[in-house]
Design brief:
alpha+beta, BirA Bifunctional Protein, domain 2, Rossmann fold, 11-stranded mixed sheet, globular, disordered N terminus, binds zinc ion
């Protein structure tokens, strides 16, 4: 019992100290650990299991929209990176350089990729020659490195894992369609698989990707009322094509520059899952990305009971295996300890099997999200357990959506805006004139930035919250990660 109490107390109270709670959950649930190099993290098997499921679900969506995977090198020659001025300026403060190979000093410094536009574009200029070669629809799953001063596991780390899609098209319209298609893929993946509601929108000039024509993103609200950019999709226009000379001969015989896009989502989404769904007992993992969807906890007191319980557990486990990621916990701990452990790890469903359940030919199912209990006859388990998982998945989304709605407010004057950002946080919908100067002044004053200009922005006449010039619609502000 003492052990049990100690275990629960190890997590800081979420409402008291959100940031401390987040750190405790990540470490205690064994998602990740701190690495010897500051700013890096070790993703432990349980955390990596979540990432692998995210990867497979997202990758299937990429394949379904016609994309293929490839792999490009980690090292990028400095001269390549320097070709696009805006791009290199945007990344320069965060680039790590390789200057030596073995004992030899390199003639040209090599950047450890902060992103791969430069290296991929240099290859596309070789591969693309005719309109028949287009579109090129390539994605890569890899690591990137951006030297960060302030880091936090998953949310901001110097090295992180992600995917980056890089496509080339014949026309601006085709590229824009691709950018919006991938924004939709991210929205669906994050809402349906991660159970996190998002606001799709366009970034302001100030917040767009270095070197892009336009950047779109999906924005999510975390449990502490701060925003998080969940994924981005960039229309790169012809900037990189001109710099890297990516041209094709069109049907009309003319030589033209391609239109390009890039889009990405990273391991920071694991942090988002923790922050959106978790509670004081720890993680709550949406069933679709849960490495263990159902944990069977056997309960017995006397050895004589153990064998009967074991037979039942084995039977139930085998019957669920084809449709559910299920495990049974036979470790040498008390049932209470196991309940805490698997709650901390956010397993969506617990199935208890005790001597009484053996007699009644049932299991006791307990949902992680609301702790609702239900007796499920063994024979019905293969149907009922997947149903319960689907219910957990959809109720997590509903709960997160209700939270976001309760924490989305309108503000029409700056004093109200400042008060909301300071006291309640959340998303604040406010009018903005479109000038970067106002955007920066608001950021300076309140710490809030424009998360996006929503795709479904309603036309509404108003005045900029800062300068009172006319505005035709509200944009989404928040403090953010
Ligand atoms: Zn203004």
């Amino acid at each position: 019992m003492a052990e049990e109490e100690k275990y629960v107390q190890a997590i800081v109270d979420k409402s008291q100290d959100f940031s401390g709670w987040y750190g405790d959950v990540v470490i205690q649930a064994q998602l990740a650990d701190y690495a010897p190099v500051k700013g890096c993290m070790v993703i432990r098997p349980y955390g990596f299991g979540i990432w692998e499921l995210m990867q497979s679900l997202l990758d299937a969506r990429f394949k379904a929209t016609g994309h293929q995977n490839a792999y490009f090198p980690l090292l990028i020659p400095e001269s390549f990176l320097a070709k696009e001025a805006e791009h290199v300026e945007g990344f320069a403060p965060q680039v790590a350089w390789v200057t030596q190979g073995g004992e030899d000093r390199l003639e040209e410094r090599l950047a450890i990729r902060p992103t791969s536009e430069a290296i991929i574009c240099s290859m596309y200029s070789k591969w693309i020659d005719s309109w028949r070669d287009l579109p090129v629809l390539i994605n890569q799953w890899c690591n990137v490195l951006r030297w960060e001063k302030v880091t936090r596991p998953f949310l901001r780390t110097t090295e992180f894992l992600w995917q980056e899609g890089h496509t080339a098209h014949r026309s601006e319209q085709e590229a824009e369609e691709e950018v919006l298609r991938m924004l939709g893929v991210y929205r669906d993946f994050i809402q349906e698989d991660l159970a996190i509601p998002v606001v799709p929108g366009r970034k302001t000039e100030n917040e767009k990707f270095a070197g892009a024509l336009r950047t779109y993103s999906v924005e999510a609200l975390m449990g502490d009322g701060k925003g998080l950019q969940a994924a981005t999709s960039h229309n790169l226009g012809q900037h990189f094509a001109r710099v890297f000379n990516i041209t094709f001969q069109d049907e009309d015989g003319e030589r033209k520059f391609v239109w390009q896009t890039s889009w990405g989502l990273s391991t920071r989404m694991i942090g988002a899952v923790v922050m959106v769904h978790g509670d004081d007992a720890g993680l709550i993992i949406p069933p679709r990305i849960a490495p263990v969807q159902a944990i069977i906890v056997p309960i017995w007191r006397k050895d004589a009971e153990k064998e009967a319980v074991r037979a039942t557990v084995e039977k139930v486990e085998a019957s669920l295996k084809p449709a559910v990621r299920v495990r049974s916990d036979w470790s040498e701990h008390t049932p209470g300890w196991k309940f805490n452990e698997w709650e901390l790890k956010g397993v969506p469903l617990r199935l208890e099997v005790g001597p009484r359940d053996v007699q009644k030919e049932q299991v006791v199912a307990v949902r992680r999200d609301n702790r609702a209990k239900e007796m499920v006859p063994w024979v019905k388990a293969p149907d009922r357990v997947p149903e319960l998982l689907a219910e957990v998945q959809s109720s997590l989304f509903s709960r997160a959506l209700a939270f976001r709605e309760a924490n989305t407010r309108n503000a029409d004057i700056l004093a109200d805006f400042e008060e909301i950002i300071a006291d309640q946080r959340g998303f604040v919908n406010a009018h903005w004139c479109g000038q970067t100067a106002c955007e920066l002044a608001i950021k300076e004053r309140t710490g809030a930035t424009i998360r996006c200009i929503p795709m479904d922005q309603a036309r509404e006449e108003g005045e900029c919250i800062y300068c009172r010039l006319p505005s035709h619609g509200r944009v989404v502000f928040a403090r953010s990660y």
